User: Which sequence fits this backbone?
């Protein structure tokens, strides 16, 4: 992820219709994957704390450490939010569905009709989707179907 969005915020971009459909399908499935509104709020708060600390991270070693600590807290909140196997699987299914929709969308693109701004918007959207999926996958790495954060392994 680029550092200015988290797993509950889609980027505000103008996309060609087919690509907008793919992105909106992903966003809809992502929202359904959240186990609760509280979990989504906890992740958003952790991300806001990280983003704030990251802006100051170059000012001193202590500020850099705070940013690192806030990122660890953000990752932990994502891991806790998606600890449930079904929630994680929903995110992965949404990602895979997005990739399938992208394949179909690209098959319909006429290069002469695709403006550079549209290509940039497609890239931004794809980057966001990939970042969300990667964040959940990294945060939950090592969790099995039955494990929950804090379980003894």
Assistant:
């Amino acid at each position: 992820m680029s550092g200015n969005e988290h797993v509950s915020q889609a980027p505000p971009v103008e996309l060609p219709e087919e690509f907008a459909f793919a992105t909106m399908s992903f966003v809809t499935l992502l929202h359904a994957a959240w186990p609760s509104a509280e979990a989504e709020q906890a992740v958003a708060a952790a991300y806001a704390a990280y983003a704030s600390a990251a802006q100051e991270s170059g000012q001193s070693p202590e500020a850099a450490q705070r940013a690192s600590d806030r990122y660890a807290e953000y990752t932990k909140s994502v891991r806790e939010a998606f600890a449930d196997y079904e929630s994680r699987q929903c995110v992965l299914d949404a990602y895979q569905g997005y990739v399938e929709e992208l394949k179909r969308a690209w098959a319909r693109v006429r290069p002469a009709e695709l403006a550079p701004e549209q290509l940039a918007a497609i890239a931004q959207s794809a980057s966001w989707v990939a970042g969300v999926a990667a964040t959940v996958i990294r945060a939950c790495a090592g969790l099995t179907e039955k494990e929950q954060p804090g379980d003894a392994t």
Q: What stands out?
A: Residues 12-34+85-145 form one domain. The first helix runs from residue 17 to 33.
